[in-house]
Amino acid sequence: MVSSNEIQKTILVIGASGATGRLLVEQLLIRGLKVRAVVRSPDSLPKELKEHDNLALIHAAVLDLSDTELARQVSGCDAVASCLGHNLSFSGMYGQPRMLVSDATRKLCDAIKTNKPKAAVRFVLMNTTGNTNRDIPERISFGQRCVVGLIRLLLPPHLDNERAADYLRTKMGQHHREVEWSAVRPDTLTDETEVSEYEVYASPIRSAIFDAGLTSRINVGHFMADLITDDEVWDRWKGKMPVIYNSASSSV
């Protein structure tokens, strides 16, 4: 059940037309929140979402929005969520913008700070379990370090995800007055129709390279929505990079 306070919240979702982004939008609307969704192609959203009374669509690429316009869209939002990612095509991985996720993260944080909000705005970033949280001593094998080093050189999207999380860690830090953050790290993404049981850890419990787990996109959307709406969940994971896996007992 959604409280009256939650009904009044407004959330800005970037990458809302993507496979995970639209599931997050759906989860937020189910909880009674108002959603502003930045989409390059509204046609990719289901009709029932596009026609929802609590959804406002902004038809644009986030990096094409001016700083002034982005600050206007962020204004009045209690949280900002980024589900941006690169298409798994040659142009998507090697074309422009090469640093889509990290550039958008920086611009969105700047937009939040421009508005000087009275209370800190929650920033939830969808990242990847292949990215290490350098704030804590995560156990990474020598073999995985070598493979990730090659991926960093050969696949720009990985470096982009690293830079986005590093920006939040180093520039926003743990005690920023205007921006609080959490970077969600799913493992291998799968497509399911219903939320299933899932587990959240501070660090990976499997090797993202040699023993990858599964994480359904709808579970990612559900957890990101929990971070935005549930104060206890937020207090547990703010300033951290939680790793999410489907539970072994789930049907996935």
Q: What report would you give on this structure?
A:
With 252 residues, the chain is an alpha/beta fold. It has one domain (4-246): Rossmann fold, CATH 3.40.50.720. It has 10 helices and 10 strands. It starts with a helix and ends in a 6-residue tail after the last strand.
Short key terms for the protein model shown above:
10 helices; globular; 252 residues; 10 strands; eight-stranded mixed β-sheet; alpha/beta; two-stranded parallel sheet
CATH topology-level name: Rossmann fold
Distance between the first and last residues' Cα: 27 Å
Mean of all residue-level pLDDT scores: 92
CATH-level-2 architecture: 3-Layer(aba) Sandwich
Please give the largest β-sheet: 8 strands, mixed
Order of helices and strands: HEHEHEHEHHEHHEEEEHHE
Brief characterization of the structure:
It is globular and about 50 Å long. The chain has 10 helices and 10 strands.
Topology:
Layout lengths: L3 H4 L2 E5 L6 H10 L3 E6 L7 H4 L4 E5 L7 H8 L4 E4 L7 H5 L5 H16 L5 E6 L15 H13 L1 H17 L6 E8 L1 E3 L7 E4 L12 E3 H13 L1 H7 L5 E4 L6
Parallel strand pairs: 1-2, 1-4, 2-3, 4-5, 5-6, 6-10, 7-9
Antiparallel strand pairs: 8-10
